[in-house]
Design goal:
The protein has one domain. The longest helix is centred in the first third of the chain and has 25 residues, at about 1-25. The chain is built from four helices and no strands. By secondary structure, the protein is mainly α. Helix 1 packs parallel to helix 3 (about 65-75). It has helices spanning about 1-25, 35-55, 65-75, 80-85.
Amino acid sequence: MMASISAAKDMYEKGVEQIKDFNKQYGDFFSPIQSDMDWYNKNVIGAARDQLNDLYSSGIDPARSAEGRSIISRFINQVPYGKIN
């Protein structure tokens, strides 16, 4: 019983860390060009927020469920890094 509780806690903490890492890496973009800021907010920050909101509205906890963590991982891996650069 304690092993399964510990495993569930570990998976939860990993899910929370994934979300924190994404916010740390991509949450602080600044540019003197407003159109770049608008694009970034729409395609990176806004897309992440929409993804999380969709998960929660579907009843999926992105930090606690394996399905939620896999959706978040897939989203992070599909971020358009080339366009961001």
